[in-house]
UniProtKB/TrEMBL annotation, chain A:
GO cellular component, one term: cytosol
A Pfam family the protein falls into: ThiF
GO BP term, pick one: protein ufmylation
Official protein name in the record: Ubiquitin-like modifier-activating enzyme 5
Domain THIF-type NAD/FAD binding fold: 54-305
UniProt key word Protein biosynthesis: no
Taxonomic lineage of the native organism: Eukaryota, Metazoa, Chordata, Craniata, Vertebrata
UniProt keyword annotations, A-Z: ATP-binding, Metal-binding, Nucleotide-binding, Ubl conjugation pathway, Zinc
InterPro entries in the cross-refs: D-isomer_DH_CS1, ThiF/MoeB/HesA, ThiF_NAD_FAD-bd, Ubiquitin-activating_enz
Superkingdom: Eukaryota
Similarity-based family: Belongs to the ubiquitin-activating E1 family. UBA5 subfamily.
Record flagged with keyword Cell membrane: no
Classification via PANTHER family: UBIQUITIN-ACTIVATING ENZYME E1, UBIQUITIN-LIKE MODIFIER-ACTIVATING ENZYME 5
GO molecular function, one term: UFM1 activating enzyme activity
TrEMBL record, chain B:
Lineage, top ranks: Eukaryota, Metazoa, Chordata, Craniata, Vertebrata
Protein name per its UniProtKB record: Ubiquitin-fold modifier-conjugating enzyme 1
Function: E2-like enzyme which specifically catalyzes the second step in ufmylation. Accepts the ubiquitin-like modifier UFM1 from the E1 enzyme UBA5 and forms an intermediate with UFM1 via a thioester linkage. Ufmylation is involved in various processes, such as ribosome recycling, response to DNA damage, interferon response or reticulophagy (also called ER-phagy).
Gene3D superfamilies: Ubiquitin Conjugating Enzyme
GO BP: any one term: protein K69-linked ufmylation
Organism: Stegastes partitus
Record keywords, A-Z: Ubl conjugation pathway
Keyword Nucleotide-binding attributed: no
InterPro entries: UBQ-conjugating_enzyme/RWD (IPR016135), Ufc1 (IPR014806)
């Protein structure tokens, strides 16, 4: 029997050997990719030859779908969150030949991410932005990349994030053309919303539900369309029977399919918006259970909690007033409420007083889209509030420490 | 018709609230399938206000009668003690007044003072109720919080480090509390050990913003999470008491 010391030594030997092998393999891979990598291309060509990576994209011009496809190279897009949706989004934009990509994510690649697209097992442990940049650069060396490995919701990072959104364009000092939110949590979405409202930055929000069977994309033009804080979070009804939906012991599920669909819808909207073709969607939902795609547009809420949203609305109103009027006749479809069309659901479950306070107004939304919850108009009045105190913050901190 | 009603009650069995010990009240609303609008208009014969009286046999599914004459069943209509205790604890935490986040240089110090006041009151109340279970402190500017929380299970005390940053959007959004040493041990966690809160937390926070503070986050977020997850982790042997060798737990 070998002693523990002997075994430790053997482990170290093997570890060193492994490191050497890895280094050798990396060197080989680099040399290999160097050999395969094409040089940068100055001008997109429409020539249909095997060696032209843009020939099929440029064909869009010849077919009359897009007026000026080359324009894609002048645009900068920031992708916030390089997870299941963000990584695929970044890859699509890279393959389309976008001018510059800014990638923001604080996370590392984990083996638990392997049910999703894009990242590969050998990248486990690398930061997502670093791993993504490496892969994307190999796919298309014409794209400029800027990566930031941090959490945008904390104080110092948020300031830097806002700075890069407003300065990080293809030409340094110019704002990016579009911000894409591909994050997976409410805080980060609200942070992006705050930044974009303050900067007047147009952005698109995307999301996949925690049960993995619905998703959405949304175009937000500060002051014009509803911002992320204008209404409670919107959800695409998946029409799943609550009886069969179990949440015990899990946080969230994910499917590469739903994420791929949402990334596809998002980038399609980005291309339509940037290259000016087709109709740009304001809100497009995806219900995977019934293959239903509800869509709508929602105006900004004059009572929005975000004061920069309200300020942008003022600006927008001024601009609209200056614009020559075009009469638009809207035909309103009369909604007929039939008795058998009702589905009963329970909204609130507390006392009468609380009941009144607990259910706020639901915005007028089309079939298939609803809000995650409602906010009552009146402030709840129960409970006392903190009293005025003579104590300083330092006193209170010390008191807390002594407890 | 009976199917519809069954699903209504079935979907709510776990989280409705008692108005007093023997009855529960909630309001039914319907959502139009065409326009998604919520209204109190209901199918004929169903009253929007439903009062039900609880059955006496706790272990049996409670047989309930609502005022439209329909009989419905709830699997277990009463909230458990943890919920009731949480509700009582929360009602004693003072609400905060200042709507300011860390980017608001002028008002944030005032908000921070209120946070400490509420936390101090909450900890003192917990101590008085013999249910002291966490400590928190922040850096000087109040943007990063660290502390410990503990949970007593079968007379043994299990202690965990906790941490979180105040997001720039606070107090409109709640911070994400992390218990890093439990990262990877439970599915009720996001990466980095951030705890996964229940569906009820986000609406509750949104409805009470900006009056809820960190003390509410502890009481409604971390507290219930620990109460569910820690006994489970101990049961699975994934959390072992420090003074107890790993072998003994297996
Ligand atoms: Zn808004």
């Amino acid at each position: 029997m070998a002693t523990v010391e002997e075994l430790k030594l053997r482990v170290r030997e093997l570890e060193n050997e492994l490191i050497k092998c890895k280094q050798k393999q990396c060197a080989m891979e680099d040399a290999h990719s160097q050999a395969l990598n094409r040089p940068k291309i100055d001008k997109m060509s429409a020539e249909v030859v095997d060696s032209n990576p843009y020939s099929r994209l440029m064909a869009l011009k010849r077919m009359g779908i897009v007026d000026d496809y080359e324009k894609i190279r002048t645009f900068t897009v920031a992708v916030v969150g390089v997870g299941g949706v963000g990584s695929v989004t970044a890859e699509m934009l890279t393959r389309c030949g976008i001018g510059k990509l800014l990638l923001f994510d604080y996370d590392k690649v984990e083996l638990a991410n392997m049910n999703r697209l894009f990242f590969q097992p050998h990248q486990a442990g690398l930061s997502k932005v670093e791993a993504a940049e490496h892969t994307l650069r190999n796919i298309n060396p014409d794209v400029s990349f800027e990566t930031h490995n941090y959490n945008i919701t904390t104080m110092e990072n948020f300031t830097h994030f806002m700075d890069r959104i407003s300065q990080g364009g293809l030409e340094e000092g110019k704002p990016v053309d579009l911000v894409l939110s591909c994050v997976d949590n409410f805080e980060a979405r609200m942070a992006i919303n705050t930044a974009c409202n303050e900067l007047g930055q147009i952005w698109m929000e995307s999301g996949v539900s925690e049960n993995a069977v619905s998703g959405h994309i949304q175009l937000i033009i500060p002051g014009e369309t509803a911002c992320f804080a204008c209404a409670p979070p919107l959800v695409v009804a998946a029409n799943i029977d609550e009886k069969t939906l179990k949440r015990e012991g899990v946080c969230a599920a994910s499917l590469p399919t739903t994420m791929g669909v949402v990334a596809g819808l998002l980038v399609q909207n980005v291309l339509k918006y940037l290259l000016k073709f087709g109709t740009v969607s304001y809100y497009l939902g995806y219900n995977a259970m019934q293959d239903f795609f509800p869509s709508m547009a929602m105006k900004a809420n004059p009572q929005c909690n975000d004061r920069y949203c309200r300020r942008q609305q003022e600006e927008y109103k001024k601009k609209e007033a200056e614009r020559p009027k075009v009469e638009v006749v809207e035909e309103e479809e009369e909604v007929v409420h039939e008795d058998n069309e009702w589905g009963i659901e329970l909204v609130s479950e507390v006392t009468d007083a609380e009941l009144q306070a607990a259910s706020g107004t639901v915005p007028d939304l089309p079939e298939g889209i609803t809000v995650a919850y409602t906010i009552p108009a009146e402030e709840p009045t129960s409970g006392d509030t903190v009293e005025e105190t003579e104590q300083s913050l330092e006193d209170l901190m010390a008191q807390m420490r002594k407890l | 018709m009976s199917d519809v009603h069954h699903s209504v009650f079935d979907s709510v069995h776990s989280d409705h609230v008692l108005t007093n010990e023997h009855s529960v009240a909630f309001t039914l609303k319907t959502r139009c399938r065409k326009c998604s609008l919520l209204t109190e208009q209901l199918p004929v014969g169903v009253s929007p206000e439903v009062h039900v009286t609880l059955g006496t046999e706790r272990s049996e599914p409670d047989r309930l009668r609502q005022n439209s004459g329909l009989t419905v069943y709830l699997r277990d209509s009463r909230p458990n003690m943890a919920d009731e205790a949480t509700r009582r604890a929360v009602s004693q935490i003072p609400m905060l007044k200042t709507h300011a986040g860390p980017r608001d240089r002028a008002l944030w110090p005032q908000r921070l003072k209120e946070e400490y006041q509420a936390l101090i009151r909450f900890v003192e109340q917990n101590k008085a109720a013999d249910n002291d279970w966490f400590r928190l402190e922040s850096n000087a500017d109040g943007t990063r919080w660290t502390g410990t929380c503990w949970f007593v299970h079968e007379l043994l005390r299990y202690e965990f480090r906790l941490e979180f940053d105040i997001p720039v959007t606070y107090p409109d959004t709640a911070p994400e509390v992390a218990v890093p040493e439990l990262d990877g041990k439970t599915a009720k966690m996001y990466r980095g050990g951030r705890i996964c809160l229940t569906d009820h937390f986000a609406p509750l926070w949104a409805r009470n913003a900006p009056r809820f503070g960190l003390a509410h986050l502890m009481a409604l977020g971390l507290g219930p999470w620990l109460a569910v997850e820690v006994p489970d982790l101990i049961g699975k042997g994934l959390v072992v008491h420090k003074e107890r060798p790993r072998e003994a737990a297996e």
